[in-house]
UniProtKB/TrEMBL annotation, chain A:
Its EC number is 4.2.1.109. One of its GO terms (biological process) is pentose catabolic process. GO terms for cellular component: cytosol. One of its GO terms (molecular function) is aldehyde-lyase activity. It comes from the Bacteria. Keywords: Lyase, Metal-binding. It comes from Pseudodesulfovibrio hydrargyri. This is Methylthioribulose-1-phosphate dehydratase.
UniProtKB/TrEMBL annotation, chain B:
It comes from Pseudodesulfovibrio hydrargyri. Its EC number is 1.-.-.-. This is Putative oxidoreductase YdhV. Residues 8-206 form the Aldehyde ferredoxin oxidoreductase N-terminal domain. InterPro entries: Ald_Fedxn_OxRdtase_dom2, Ald_Fedxn_OxRdtase_dom3, Ald_Fedxn_OxRdtase_N, Ald_Fedxn_OxRdtase_N_sf, OxRdtase_Ald_Fedxn_C, Tungsten_al_ferr_oxy-like_C, W-dependent_AOR. It holds the Pfam family AFOR_C. One of its GO terms (molecular function) is metal ion binding. It is an enzyme of class 1 (oxidoreductase). Its cofactor is tungstopterin; [4Fe-4S] cluster. Transmembrane segments: none annotated. Coiled coil: none annotated. Belongs to the AOR/FOR family. Keywords: 4Fe-4S, Iron, Iron-sulfur, Metal-binding, Oxidoreductase.
Length: 390, 583
């Protein structure tokens, strides 16, 4: 258990969500017969009280690194009952993020009885699990991603509607100064075409690690696939793109086997892209400004407002890259219906509030380059739009 | 008096000896402590749990939950519970179809059936009209009984019955519900037969009151959204598309498909009998329980049900049969005879190992028929193996035959099997969820590290699910977080993940104490020796060694500690007191 606690503390630091050392480094606790922590810290006295109040086996607590710390504290102060982002991650998995005003076991437990992750302003983010510390890691990472998207989306909307206040402007200015510079270099991935399963899996694992290394996914999720003949190799559901070895499913396209039961929930969408096009590899990440821009819309009076993620009928693009509605998975409003035609035509598409897909031939170099290029373009576009209002 | 939201407030006691039906209106605190379904039925079983199945005082319990009959997703479930004639342990079965919904809409949260009718009988419920009637259907197979009742009763009536296996005293007797939704294990069909009860029909036209319909809509949307995002449930390879048979290829590729009575864990001819092969052969259509959007049942063009994963796997790999039609026929015959197909197939596998004789399609069927007629075969794998002087060939825990997941392929599964209150059952903690299906996150299936608490928490969660009466499968996508919101919307009471887990814990410990009162102890929380001494079938990059017994015992000790049990596996006085289950 201690090994797992240390692993996910290290991943939070590697993802840039927390510092790796010092008092703000993550605290990850795991309980089987005995409670263990990844490191010693006086706050574990309080946090240990959560294990006696909740039916859990793991807990992740972290004071996020900047700029997330500032964002979370700001949003929590303005939404003392809870933060409600509207990105897909939150709509589907988090629902909302309760705010807890006190760093006490009683107060935190009261909220964690109902939700998987909470924010304690000025203190940090806490999330629990019943299976492994990975659950807390995913929840914390998702909450940080969702609040980042909410913060920037909300700021642009308020600028457009002239409802910004001085405090928001100050905080936004500070956050922007703290943003890391965009990456413009490319990783130089293995060149294809790949002719056997071994080389496909190696290329996918390499591309996955680079997508994570370039900060183009949250929680290390997203998905990746490669078509080899009539078999699609795709990352498994919930797998971390930086740890794909052993987590890639070969899925025959002829329906002769159901090995893909553990494949990414977006297998159907990938399959349909391959059926409609000559592409043979797909990358999907959750680059932050791509997600922000996919949700940005000036039409306040649109009848689909509030249901944009499933009912948007506008032909929206970012420099020609289409933005389509669609929820995770294969339901009637699933992205499996909207993404494939857009991808087949353009080789890249964004899903409202969800993320960016890019496709290519032979190997992942072009899809990776487009992923990065579109994200950087979305980042520029965000500030261009903002400059129209402030 | 409490407002009755999500419940009718009435439990109906039916005494088959006298034919009397007496309503009871339990105190609201009983509902809060045990919720419904498996929890509430366990509450009613406890005072009588030491009775043999032949004792008229042993109750046969059919309970719904607070979500049953509401717009909450997968809410058309109910529980049948009693003391198992096969194992002597407390045993429940989750049933679907339309029967639980109609029972609730008829005005009853549950039925407590006791006594013994002087002649074979049926119970017929039509809203508040309850009749115990003599029947001439005794001796008929389940299809004949259900078709005869359907011809006579209104179309919106649900039906359950037993078959010849129960009438002939088989300890593997099951219950058929609305043709395709029984699957009750542990020989509970024999409890029906012991009461001379052949069938139950229910028609209910009322409505289940919901406290906050708008909040239920919101909760429902969140649950459905998660379901749609689940590759296991709704993906192109998932249960909605293929039925639970979708698991076949995956479990085989993970080298944990029980083959040749668990002597191997890989079936060479898997591609001939997997879900895709069945779909090609039988062109199935979708079918589901009332209130379910997953619709995991598949019906062949000829009207037979396609077997679920466990039945198909056991009637192929475990008995050494690669003929899909023979497996289909065997599964269909089990349904008509009223045999639990998992236990029946496992008993056949045990017999094959003892005799060394392979089955043909004809002997497979004829042996099944013999099983429904009584004798050693009708007594299950453990009794058969003991009678033959080969007890090591019985792949059972607490006398209940193991389903189609080999415990050497998942150590959480191994622990879950061992400590399960109803015996060889993976559905008490469903560790397949994280050890194979990666939900909610993946765990290392070849370690016991952390598994004691994971299994305890999962047992509590599933017991809560069984007490709300939602389908267990949906918890591969949604969680108690979402269902607590649905339950709050339905009942008007403030439910959280934590309070649901507390109900689940009370339910599980209540079952533990009932088993302890019937003499079960730590020696029963164990696996067949084979799993500690023989390897599985390694290959495909997967090594399947025997389970390390010392590590298993250490994990079991941890489980006892985490669960609040003593070294014998009996709940401590502190645990009972904390949960309000004082003796």
């Amino acid at each position: 258990m201690k090994t797992l606690c240390e692993k996910y503390a290290a991943k939070l630091a590697a993802q840039g969500l927390a510092t790796g050392h010092g008092p703000d480094a993550p605290l990850v606790g795991g309980l089987d017969a005995e409670l263990v922590w990844n490191r010693e810290d006086p706050r574990t006295d309080v946090l240990s009280g959560l294990f006696s109040r909740l039916s859990i086996n793991s807990l992740v607590f972290v004071r996020p690194a900047e700029p997330y710390r500032t964002i979370l504290d700001f949003l929590a102060a303005r939404n003392p009952d809870g933060i409600r982002p509207e990105d897909t991650e939150t709509r589907t998995f988090l629902h909302d993020i309760p705010v807890c005003g006190e760093f006490t076991a009683e107060a935190m437990a009261a909220r964690l009885k109902r939700r998987k992750v909470i924010v304690i302003p000025g203190q940090g983010v806490a999330a629990c699990g019943t299976v492994t510390p990975e659950q807390g890691f995913v929840s914390v990472s998702s909450a940080v991603f969702a609040t980042f998207v909410l913060f920037f989306s909300d700021y642009l909307n308020r600028a457009r509607n002239v409802t910004l206040d001085d405090e928001y402007v100050d905080v936004f200015s500070r956050v922007v100064r703290l943003l890391p510079a965009p990456r413009t270099d490319l990783p130089g991935l293995a060149t294809g075409p790949f002719i056997n399963e071994e080389s496909v899996v190696a290329a996918m694992a390499e591309a996955g690690r680079k997508v994570v290394g370039f900060g183009l996914v949250d929680s290390f999720f997203g998905n990746i696939s490669y078509r080899l003949g009539e078999t699609i190799h795709i990352s498994q559901t919930g797998s971390s793109l930086d740890e794909l070895e052993g987590c890639i499913d070969p899925c025959p396209m002829d329906g002769s086997a159901t090995n893909g039961l553990t494949a990414s929930s977006e297998l159907s969408a990938h399959e349909d892209v391959y059926r409609r096009s000559a592409f043979d590899c797909i990358l999907h990440g959750h680059p932050r400004f791509s997600v922000i821009m996919s949700m940005d819309c000036e039409r306040d009076n649109c009848p689909n407002r509030g249901r944009c993620h499933i009912h948007c009928t506008e032909c929206r693009t970012v420099d020609g890259v289409p933005i389509v509605p669609g929820e995770v998975g294969t339901g009637p409003t699933g992205l499996c219906h909207t993404l494939p035609p857009a991808m087949a035509k353009n080789g890249a598409a964004m899903v409202h509030g969800h993320g960016l897909f890019t496709a290519g031939n032979n190997d992942f170099n072009k899809p990776f380059a487009r992923l990065l290029e579109i994200e950087n373009r979305c980042r520029d576009l965000y500030f261009e739009r903002l400059s129209q209002y402030v | 008096m409490d407002e009755c939201y999500g419940r009718t407030g009435t439990v109906l006691h039916i005494d088959l000896t006298t034919g009397a039906a007496t309503p009871e209106h339990p105190d609201g605190t009983v509902y809060e402590r045990f919720l419904g379904g498996r929890g509430l039925a366990g509450h009613y079983l406890h005072p009588f749990v030491d009775r043999e199945y032949t004792d008229p005082d042993l109750p046969l319990l059919l309970f719904t939950g607070p979500l049953t009959g509401t717009e909450s997703p997968t809410s058309g479930r109910g529980t049948i519970l009693s003391r198992s004639p096969l194992t002597g342990a407390v045993c429940d079965g989750s049933i679907g179809g339309g029967l639980p919904t109609r029972l609730k809409k008829a005005g009853y949260d549950g039925l407590v059936i006791t006594g013994r009718a002087p002649a074979p009988c049926g119970i017929e419920i039509d809203d508040n009209e309850v009749r115990v009637v003599e029947t001439s259907l005794w001796g008929q197979d389940t299809d004949a009984v259900l078709h005869a009742l359907e011809r006579r009763l209104p179309e919106d009536t649900s039906l359950a019955c037993i078959g010849p296996a129960a009438e002939n005293g088989s300890l593997l007797a099951s219950v058929a519900v609305d043709h395709r939704h029984g699957g009750v294990r542990g020989g509970l069909g024999l409890v029906w037969a012991a009461k001379n009860l052949k069938y139950l029909t229910v028609r209910g036209t009322g409505e289940v009151r919901v406290h906050d319909p708008a909040a239920l809509v919101e909760a429902r949307e969140a649950i459905v959204r998660l379901t749609m995002a689940s590759p296991v449930l709704m993906g192109g390879h998932g249960f909605s598309h293929w039925g639970t048979g979708a698991l076949f290829d995956l479990i085989n590729s993970r080298r944990m498909l029980p083959t040749d009575n668990f002597r191997k864990t890989w079936f060479d001819q898997g591609a001939e009998v997997n879900a895709a092969a069945l779909a090609r052969l039988y062109k199935p259509r979708d079918h589901g329980c009332l209130g379910c959007h997953i619709r995991c049942r598949k019906i062949a063009l000829d009207g037979r049900s396609l077997p679920g994963f466990e039945t198909m796997a056991h009637f192929t790999a475990d008995v050494g049969n690669a003929d899909p039609e023979a497996a289909m026929e065997a599964a269909d015959l089990c349904g008509r005879l009223g045999l639990d197909p998992v236990s029946a197939a496992s008993t056949l596998a045990c017999l094959r190992e003892i005799t060394g004789k392979d089955y043909t399609d004809k002997t497979l069927i004829s042996t099944l028929r013999a099983m429904a007629e009584g004798g050693d075969l009708a007594a299950g794998a453990l009794n058969l193996a003991q009678a033959c002087g080969r007890p090591e060939t019985a792949m059972t825990v607490k006398g209940l035959e193991l389903p189609a997941f080999d415990p050497r392929g998942g150590y959480g599964l191994a622990l879950a099997y061992a400590v399960s209150t109803r015996g060889g059952c993976h559905q008490r903690a469903y560790p397949i969820s994280h050890e194979v299906l990666r939900k909610p996150v993946a765990t290392d299936r070849f370690t016991f590290s952390g598994k004691a608490r994971i299994i305890k928490l999962a047992e509590d969660a599933i017991a809560a699910c069984d007490s709300m009466n939602a389908c267990r499968l949906i918890f591969l996508a949604a969680g108690l977080e979402e269902y607590a919101k649905a339950l709050t919307a339905v009942t008007g009471k403030d439910w959280s993940v934590q309070s649901l887990l507390e109900v689940g814990e009370r339910t599980t410990v209540n079952e533990r104490r009932m088993n302890a009162e019937n003499g079960f102890d730590s020696t029963d929380d164990d696996l067949p020796e084979r799993f500690f001494t023989e390897p599985g079938t390694s290959g495909g990059g997967v090594d399947v060694p025997p389970i390390d017994r010392e590590k298993f015992l250490a994990a079991r000790r941890n489980y006892y500690w985490v669960r609040g049990l003593d070294e014998n596996g009996d709940p401590t006085a502190d645990t009972l007191q904390r949960l309000g289950l004082d003796r």
